[in-house]
Amino acid sequence: MIIIVDRRNRLLHVNLSGFRSTVTVGNFQVFQYVSGPRPSKTINLGCLWSIPNGNYGKQATWGTNGIITVIGRLANGDRCIHTPVTMPIPDGVTFR
Questions:
Q1: pTM of model > 0.85
Q2: What is the spatial distance between Cα 13 and Cα 50, in angstroms, rounded to a whole number?
């Protein structure tokens, strides 16, 4: 579970773990980083997980408080398989 902030090249390398949902819920705060860099604005991380039994994917955001939130509904028993991603740091975003 890691997010590397490559300031020099203005890239984010996101490699999180997969998980299985044990509840049916809407937007779900799935990971919280208690230390390390935090973005100055919420960042849309795009589609990070695939859900094989539903044949669809889930998007996520990384908030200024360090929380990674899965966007949209998850059902009890959904198995979320993560795909690592490298993406540009959005314009205007800094890290503290």
A1: yes
A2: 18
